[in-house]
Each structure stands twice: as C-alpha cells, then as structure tokens.
Amino acid sequence: MSSTENSLIGSVFERKTSTAQSLPSSRFAKTPGSGFPAVQHRSKSAFARAKEEEKSSSNARHTTVPLVNPASPAKQLEVDSHTADDAMRQQISDENERRVANMTEEEREQERCEVLEQLGSGAADLLERVRAARSRNTTKAPAIPEGILIPNEQASEVSREIPIVSSLPGFTTGRNLSRVKSLEDFGKRAPPILVKSSTRPSSPNKASRQLRFAALTPADVYVYESAPVSPKRKAIALPPPPDFPDPSIVSLGTFKENGLPCKRPLSPASPKGDDRPVQKITDDRSEPEEGTPEYIRRRYFPNMPADNPSMSWMKPSSFISEPVLLRFDLTGAPIPAEISAALPSHLGLHHHADGDHAGYTLDDIFLLSRSTVPAQRTMMLNILVGIARRLGMQARDPNYPDRISELQGKEEELRKRILAAGLSAMNEKGGVGVRAIEVVRECIVDWDAVFDVEHAELDLAPAIMSVLQVPDFLTQATEIFTQASLPPESLAQLLSIVFRLSQESNTIADSISKTPRLLPALIQTFLLTPIPPPSDTPLPNPVALRCLAVLASSSRTNAMALCEPADALLRFITMLPPTSPFPESLATQLLIKTLRLYATLASYGLYSHIATSAASYFASLFTYIVSSKSKPLKVAWAGLVEAWVVCATDPHHTTPPHDILWSQVTSWGWGAEVLQLRQGITEDEGEVWAAIWSASSAWLEGAQVNGIRGGEGERAETLNTIQDGFSKGVEHSVVTASLEALRAELAQIHDTSLLERCQRLQRIGMHARVLSSVVRLWLACTPVANTDANTASPLGAPPFNLPFTELSSFCAFVVSHSLWSLVTGVEQAACKHLATFLAYFHRLSRHIPGTSPDLWVAQGVAILERQLPGQEEHAFRILGAILGILTPQFLGAMAHPSIWEKGGWSVIKPFLDYTIRPNREVYIAPSDVTPESIMRCTTLRLPSSSSLSSVPDEHRPTGLPLPHVWLTSPIDHLLRSGSSPVFKALPSSWDASEVDVVRASLLFIKATEEIVVRYSLNQFALKRSEMVFACMKVFMLEHGQQQEYPSPATGDEEEVFRDLVVSKLLSDLLAPFTLSAPSASSPSSRLPDIDLEQASLPFLGSGTPFYQFYTDFLALYDAISFSHPTFASLLLPPLALTYPIDYRRILWADFAHVLRTVRTPVDQVIAGDLRDFLYPVEKGEMIGKYAGALLQGSVDGFLRLVAVHHVACNIWPDLRSEEVGAEQEDVAKMLLKMVVEKGNGRVVREVLRYRQVREETVVYPPACFETSGEWIADRAEFARQALGSELHERLEGVFYG
User: Where in this chain does the record put each RPAP1 C-terminal domain (predicted)?
Assistant: First the structure.
C-alpha cells in the first residue's frame, strides 16, 4: 500500500494569496524624526505587537461582516457553488472511507490515537456538531434573491460551514466540552497565533470570500494548571472547563470585565450546548448579617462569586468528618466543643481550614510555636504557658477543679513537648524570647510542688532534666545574663529557673558552679546593683542569694568557690534596713539571705574569719535584731551564731585552722546575746525559740570543752535565765504546744493531697525542731560526768523541768508511726529534725528514773532504725550504747564464754559501722552542726532516693535509714568475703574466723530480738521469712572451718552450722516461729509476714531469683547435710501453697530421694498456720508425686501429713470444697483403688480415716486419723462403688475398727 493510500488527509491545494498581500512591517517603521528608533517595550507580548501591526496594515480584518452585494446570476451561482462543494465533499469522503477500509486494525488504532492527540478527547462530539451544522445549513439556508441587500446582523445566519473531515469509524458520542460551539460561533476575531492556514481550496467562483470567526468572550478562555513546556508542540488555546465539576482541573482565577464576574457557573443541570447568555449579578438583595460568610465575601471579596472554591473556608461544614479535637483559647484555657462551634470569628480563634470550631489544637500550637512570624510564635508560646500551668496544677492536685480530662495521664509527656518548644525559642529576641523563658519557667519551676528546703536534693524531674540538656541551657542562660537584652522580669524568671535547677541535684549544682562566667554574671546582674539605685535599674533580687546558698550547701567544693565573692555581699549587712537605699522589706530579705549564706559556709568551717573582720558591723546588727520584729531575721542570726560558735569550739577543724577562736566568741558575749533574743517572743513563735535554744546549746557544749571547770559558770548563768520559763513560763507553753501540734499533724498525715502533705511535713519539721533543740539544751545543761549515758552517774535533779512523761509517750508513738515508710527523698528533710529529736531523747531517757537497761536497749534499736541520712553520728552513738549495755553480765547464760574470749562485739562492730556509713568519702552534715561535721562533711544536702537506690552498696553515700535486716549484715559480708569492702579495710588487730563472726552475729540478733519483743516493739524484730532467710545464709557459708568446739560426730574442720554454739543459736532463733511456739512469743504474730522472695531481695537483688538460691540450698542439703534437723526444717517454708508449684516440684520430684531424710515433726514446722500447706487442695501432677511417696514409704512427719491430706482430699467427697464432674469422680476411684491395692496397712488406714474440716482448726496427727462420724458410712459406700464388694469387705475393719 502506498503512502498516499494510507493517509487520512485528502489532496492538499495551495491557497490563493491575496492580491493586496501586506509585507511585514519593519521594527523601525515609525522611526521619529530625530533619527532614533522608537522605544520597544519588552513588556508587550508578541501577541500584542502582532495585533498592533495588524491594525496598521492595509489588509486588516474587519470585526463586522461586510455587506454582501451579489451579482445578477446569484441564484445560479449559488446552485453551482452548492453543487461543486457537495461534489468535492463527497469525493473526499469516498476517498477517505476507501483508505480506512484498506487499513489494518493496528493502523486504524494508530491513526485514531493521533487524531485524539491532536483534537483532544472531545473530537467525536466536535465532529458530530460540525456534521449537524452542515446538514442545517444545507436544508435551511435561504436563497438570496438578486439585488437584495442583507443586513449585518443577519449575515451570520447565512455564513457557510467549512467541512473539515468526515466522521471516523469507531468514534462514539459521549460527554464533551459543551461550552465549545460550532466553528461559525467561535468568534469574529481570532488572534493570529490561533488561526491555522486552511488546506481547503477556495471555490473558483468565490475567490474573494474569506473565513471569519466570532469574537472571543472571557468565558470562552480557561486557563488550566501549568505544565512543563514541550518544545515539540505549539501552544494552542484550550477549551473552557466542562459544565460538570472535574477534580483534575485547577482554576487559577476568572477573567473580570467591567468589575463583574463573567465566568459561567458550573451547573450539572445545564443542558448540552446551552447558549443562553450569562445573567449579570444584581445588588438588589438585602444586606446579610454581619460576621456571616456572605457578609465577609461582600465586604472583603466583592468580585469573587459565591460559589468560588477558594471561598469555601468561610462556609460551615454540613457534617462532621472527624471527632472534634480539644482546642484552646489565647490564654491556654480549653474551649468546650459545644462552645467552640458557636464562638464568633472576631475573637481571632478561627485560624484554620475548619472554620466551624474556634481555638487551637495542640498540634496547631506546637506547629505555630515554630513559626517564622514573631507575633504568631509569641502568641503560641503564651498559649503553652497557660496549658502548662493547668497541667501542672492537675498533676499536683487530684482535686483540681479545672482539670482537662482529655489530657489526664498525659501530663508528663506534654510537659516534655512544651519544654522543648520553649527551649527552642530561648535565644530569640523580643517577645518570643520573653515568652520562651516563661514557658521554661512554668515547666520547671512551677510544675512541681517543691519544699522550701535548701538541704535536700529534690530530684523531682529526672526525665525533664534529660530533655533540658542542662549544660547547654546553662550556657544559654549565661549569654542572656551577660547581654541583659531582655526585660528585668524575664531575667528574674531565668534566675528562678537556675535556682530550681540548683535544687534538683548536687550534680546539676556542680554544673552551675563550673559553667564559665555564670556565677559572676548572676552576682553582677542581681546583687551588685548600683547604690543608690537609679530609677531605671532593677533592685537586687534575694533569689540570687538563695541560689548561692543552695550551691554552697551542695558540696564543699562549691562552698569554697563562693568564699571570694562573699566579701561583696557584706554591703547588705553594713547597710541596715532602716538606712538602706532599698525598700525596708527588700533590705530585710537581703540581710536574712546573706546571714543564711554565711551560716552555710560556716557549716563547712569556711569564711568564719568575717566574724572578726566585720565585728563592729555584726555588733550593730545584733542591736538592730533585738529591736526588730522580724522572726526570720532572728532565726537567721541565731543560726549564724550557732555555726560560728561550733567553729570556735575546735579551731583546728576550720578551714583554714584557727579562723575563729573561742576567746573571741567569749569576748563578744554571744552566749548572753542569744538569750537576750528571748525578750518579746511569744509562744506562737516556736521557730525562733528553736533557733535560740540551739544556739545556746552550741554555746554550752563549747564551754564544756573550752570553759573553766567544764563550763560550769556558763551552765549556771544559762540556767538562771531559763529555769523559770520552763517551769511555768513561755518556754513551757512552747514545748507543750509543739507536742500537741505534732500529734495532731501526724494523725492527719494520711489521705491528704500532695500539696497539703508537703505543708504538713513542713509544720512537722518545725515543731520537731522545737523539741529536739529543747532536749539538746537539757543535755547541754547536765554536768559533764553525765553526758555519757553508758557510765552516767546518778542525776540528782534535772537542769530544768520538761514534760518527761509526755515526751516518752510521744517517742513511743513516733517510732511506731507509719510516717517513716511514707517519706522518701526530699520529704526526709522535713522529718530529719524528728529523727534528731528521737536521738536526743534516747540520751535523755537514760537519766529518767525507771528506765531499765533492757528498755533503753529496746528504745535504741527502735530509734536506730528511724535515723535518716546525715544522722550517722547519732546512729554510731546509739549503736555504741546498745553494745555497751549487752555485756556478759547482762546476757547471762545466753552468751557462750567463747564469744567474749574472741573479742565479743568487736568482731562484728566493723560490719555494723559499715552498714551505717558504707562510703567514707561522703559525709552528710547532721541537722545540728558539730565540730566533727565542719571538718569532715562533704555536703549539707540529703541525697535523693534515686541516688541511694541506683548505686552499689559500697558507693552509696549513706546506709541510713537502716534496712530492716541490718542485724544480719555481718553474715552477708561473710558470704561475699571476696568482694566485701569491709574485709579490705579491717584493722590489723582484727583476727576472727567465720565461726566467730557467725556466733557474735547470731547472739546479737537473739539478744535484741528478745528485748524488742518483750517491750511489744514487734515491728522492729525480724519477720519469720527474714529470720528463715538469715539462717539459710548461715548454712550456705563455706565448709572446712576450724572448730574450737567441734561436733562429737564429725572432725575438727567442719561446716559452720555444725558448730555447737552456732547450731544452738540457730535453733533458738527459729523456735519462736514454729507451730509449737506460743503466739505471744512470735515477733510476727501480730504483723503480716512477707514471703521469702521479698525477704531475699536486700541480699540477692532483683537479678537473682530466690528460686535459684533455693535450688542451690537444696542441692547443698543433699550433699552435706547428713539429715541435719535445722537444715531440713529450712527446706519446708517454700513448700507452702502460696509459693509457685516449682518449689514443691523440685523437692517432691527432682530431689525425691532426700524426702527420707526430712523428718521434721508437724509442730516444729516453721510456719504461721498449717493451713498454708493444706489449702487449696493440690490437683494434677503433684497428686501422683504425693501418692508415690506414700506408697514407697519415703516420707514421715510433716511431709507425710501433707501427702496424706492432698491424696485423701482428691478421693473423698466430704473433703472436697467443690463439686466435681464424672471424669474427676473416676480419677478419685482409680486413686483409691491404687492406694488400697499397693499401699501398706498404715497408708491405707491413714488415707481412709483422714479427716479435716477446712473451716475449723487443723487437727494434727494422730488425732486426724481417729475421729468418727456419719462421714465414715458415706466413705464406705463410696469405696464399695469404687472397689467392689470383695475389696469393700476387707476395708470394713479399717472404717469401723
């Protein structure tokens, strides 16, 4: 087939050119007379320039159809022209159809695709309309009579259609671009770039006729989404959009003419080819309501049509596609969903695409908080401030009324996100930085309920500290302080953040001190302000002094670093509040905080020389303080005097030595001055009384060391001043009021909110300090010979009167209070004075008539467990007093002579001391400063609970409070002798064996246990499980020890537990916990016990399960026990049914061969109730183990009772606690048959006659086999059904014998 035959296009004829063809105009055709060419503005497009040139050319097209003036033979010409055109169309059509018929299907498809690519998807409709128009013109075109003129407005009706191509096979009419009209209506004027040259030959008779197009209207041109320019295609005008919406078409706007929208609306109901003119919008409608979408459109977008998609954001949604999210207003308050949909838009809360709901969601806020628009970012940070404040309140107070229930349980997660948003904007300037600091302050300072304490690590937000990245934050804070570009309020907020970080932990406090330029910038910005202060300069901030005091209390290193800048703070002392350039209230606060900072430094023995350097200023200060009514000022001054007096007591302990001398303190008369502070103080000012009594006590204690005749004159002078007050004066009322207040506060400490609990603990600490200081003063007023309670001589009369009976009963109430199990971490700071009071009272109790030595030991054991970190010196004193009382004479026959021959308590004293203070490098200062503490203390702050639990024992800063099993600590060190730090630090004089340590340890446990139980202090005695585990550890000690008193049945080198003294002590310790022991003698008879898995945690830790320890213990018993009765009895407690079945399976199955050696009687079992081993009744695999052991005869005593009980309960219906099915009934019969057929007479009798009633007291053997009743007949009938008549007759003698 030739290429001509394959073409779909007919013959191509060259168009005849016009006789008046115009040449292209030159660019410089209109050159002005000056000779310079006209300016060509490049802003004009080629299209516009072509239009201008066309207008200036001679063959410019007319915009109107010219008059047609045909010649006389017009009718004939018309007929001829129709005939010629029709013939040509028919010829072309026939030729095209012939060529299409000769094509293959692939060629047709290829040509069809090319046509569609050129003409678009509406090609079929376009051709259909062309054909319809041609047929209309052929049938309806009127003949033009000769000589008749046709008006211009009618010329378009007689215009001829030009046929383009006939319809192609396979094209169907579908959805088309209905806005595209027939070619004769496409316009009278078309841009040159849109006009294609025609390939049709002109009729010979109509050479002058030209094709004209209708003028374009704005609605006929539509701009589609831009696409990459293709160099292979020419730009063509695209048709307008369809009447039906098409999501693939993106509108870029509407052409506007005369200020009115001209774009025709999309209407699915419009018919195809609807050529009705577009109706213009009129303004005769009523004015819409203000704030409605239509009002906004008319007011701000008057040229936009109402149905424009870009205006849809103003319209309310017709349905809710998603749940309404929590939204917040501009203050951070949550907006309820029903309100957010009704709020007006002028509030500024309708910012998003969902215009129905006002407010910002959390995602909106966090996104906009990183906006590049400062105002927007500031607004979002302000919202986060309000949200963080509410979340912090509901996290602290469960009864907070404005809780955000949607965020319940998500407070900490949101806290981290809010903090991160604030930190990211801290370096910004202006309002963004101001609000960012406020956000950080809300998340760190105001979030937690913080004690107002300076001597404890708060450790309230360790997770937040990781988000904060403390070193980077401190660097940023330093730059902000140095630049001072933010408002003073923001700098003060940043200071409060640094202060709160200093309270968090000693590690962070060290980071603050080591951050370059931070402390100098802080001091310069907030303390060393100009004097007198200019009006535009901020005043000094007392928070900066508090921050310095906290940093100093964190470590001795930080305190030494603050000694140098402390000189500059003397300005707040030299200028007393009445003469200060600052407001009097501010000057007083600055003075108080400066005195407390100096007292903190003096607690390390530092910076006490300032008392000498500025003696005159301090003398003037005392005169002012006596006349002042400020209670905190008096407390601060008395605390500073107390610290300096302690430093002067032993000048060798200060840094540097002899920084202050006792002779100087005496010459200044501080002892008398402190007592002068009593003037005008009422009984309600207990805190002031406590400070005065503590300072006076320090003065008298120093006089006992440095004064004449042990400070006899100072004591007499003091007693003359205070005795009357304690008899019937204000002092007596203060002590009584504190006792009553403490009882009331302790009774209400439970079931309170966190905030109220913190407040109560602070009041408890204040009243406890009153009692501890008054008891300390009482002890300081006693003669020197009576200060050591162990060797105290009889006390004739007390120095002054105290309510001793009330104090004693209150101590008994406090030591047994559950408060001690509740307080952890920072709460211990409030209870520290309570522990100090107990320690002082233990010393005082020895002098109270009627206090026996064993009572004093019982008090000491109880009080020792209540001592808190920092009270190590008190703990050592109490421990020494207890060991001093427990002499051979006091213990009598309880103590074997061999124990004292080897050194007595000195053998275990190093281990007990290590339990109290495991880390010698850390020394926490006590509540009351001592000469020993100022030299050795490394920190004044109590460690947090996390720092105590997250480090090994040898690195723990303190061993207080003592664990409940502290008495067994020497045995723990023996089991780990290879790694024990105590063995590495024992003195060379220490020479004892494992047996010696075990003997002394067990004797100490036995003596203290008996004493505390005697005085009903059962909660301080070891529980049953704790005692069992302690004895198990003794059996786990290494064997092969040299025995001084070996067992007669063994050699000289045997296991520790075979030592006769050790064996006797083990039996004595376990006896109160056996079933035969009277309930009154059992320490745990009135207290709930714990299981062995919990009791073993202090020694094994969480990494080693007790089951592993028990497996090793059982294997050791199998290897070396030789049926040791105590060893065997320790195997039984884990067999209780409260423990997992693994413990019973390993003994009854894996170690079944050792059952013969365990012959512990029932009454010697270590248990609180025999029911623990009997109920609930065992089922399943263990029944086979019990039955097998019975049939083999390998069990006796307690184990035999357990086996008989569970086998019988699985057989007899009267012993079952519940109904069983037919399958279980058959198992019971099979089990009975096996016992009768294979068991000996004893086994058969015990199984058949065993009887227990679960709701009644357990009956021990042999009584449980000898009871009778109606149940015997029922069992006989059950046996007859299970065994048959023959076997039943053999068993009648057992049932009725």
Answer: 326-391
Q: Which residue has the tokens 């530092």?
A: 606
Closest of 628, 614, 625 to residue 570, by C-alpha: 614
Q: Is the peptide bond before 926 cis (omega within 30 degrees of 0)?
A: no
Burial of 519 per CB tally in 10 Å (0-12, 13-18, 19+): buried
Tell me the per-residue pLDDT of 194-204, one tens digit each, with 9 for 90 and over.
444 444 444 44
Give the tokens for residue 115.
Answer: 């046509």
| CA atoms of 991 and 983, how far apart (whole Å) | 11
Six token digits for residue 428: 């910004």
Q: What number of other Cβ atoms are within 10 A of residue 412's Cβ?
A: 13
Cβ-contact 1129, 1070 below 8 angstroms:
yes
Closest by CA to 810, choosing from 747, 750, 753, is 747
CA distance 416 to 421: 9
pLDDT tens profile 715-736: 999 999 999 999 989 999 999 9
1057 Cβ neighbours under 8 A, 6+ residues apart: 1034, 1035, 1037, 1063, 1066, 1124, 1126, 1127
* Dihedral over Cα of 306, 311, 314, 317: its sign: positive
DSSP 193: G
**Does residue 245 or residue 127 have the better pLDDT?**
127
pLDDT digits (tens, 9 = 90+) for 578-605: 999 999 999 999 999 999 999 999 999 9
| Phi, psi at 158, each rounded to 5° | -105, 5
Where would I find the H helices in 1131-1212? 1141-1145, 1171-1174, 1181-1192, 1198-1209
Long-range (24+ apart) CB contacts under 8 A made by 1225-1229 are 1228/1282, 1229/1281, 1229/1282, 1229/1283
How far is the C-alpha of 232 from the C-alpha of 37, rounded, in Å? 35
CA distance 756 to 449: 10
| Strand 334-335 with 260-261, pairing | unpaired
Beta strands 327-328 and 260-261, pairing class: unpaired
The DSSP output letter for 1265 is: G
The mean per-residue pLDDT over the stretch 419-445 comes to 95
Q: Label each residue of 819-863 as H, E or C.
A: HHHHCCCCHHHHHHHHHHHHHHHHHHHCCCCCCCHHHHHHHHHHH
pLDDT in tens, 797-851: 889 999 999 999 999 999 999 999 877 777 888 899 999 999 999 999 999 888 9
Virtual CA dihedral for 347, 351, 353, 355, nearest 10 degrees? -10
Q: Which pLDDT score is estimated for 287? A: 77
Q: The tokens of 656 are what?
A: 């540097």
Contact 862, 1012 (CB under 8 A): yes
Q: How far is the CA of 376 from the CAs of 314, 366, 822, in angstroms?
A: 21, 12, 47
Nearest residue to 695 via CA among 713, 725, 722, 720: 722
The residue type at 1084: S
Beta-carbon contacts of residue 1156 (< 8 Å; ≥ 6 apart) = 1194, 1195, 1196
Alpha helices in 985-1042 (DSSP H): 994-1014, 1024-1035
Q: By mean pLDDT, which of 27-36, 114-123, 673-682 is the weakest?
A: 27-36
> Under DSSP, is residue 1135 helix (H, G, I), strand (E, B) or coil?
helix
Burial of 852 (0-12, 13-18, 19+ CB in 10 A): exposed
Beta-carbon contacts of residue 908 (< 8 Å; ≥ 6 apart)? 970, 997, 1000, 1001, 1004
Query: What is the per-residue pLDDT for 1222?
Result: 79
Q: Give the pair of three-digit tokens for residue 625.
A: 């303080």
pTM: 0.74
pLDDT tens for 335-344 read 988 887 777 7
1063 alpha carbon, distance to own chain's centre: 52
Write the DSSP symbol of residue 1053.
E
468 neighbors 461 (Cβ within 8 angstroms): no
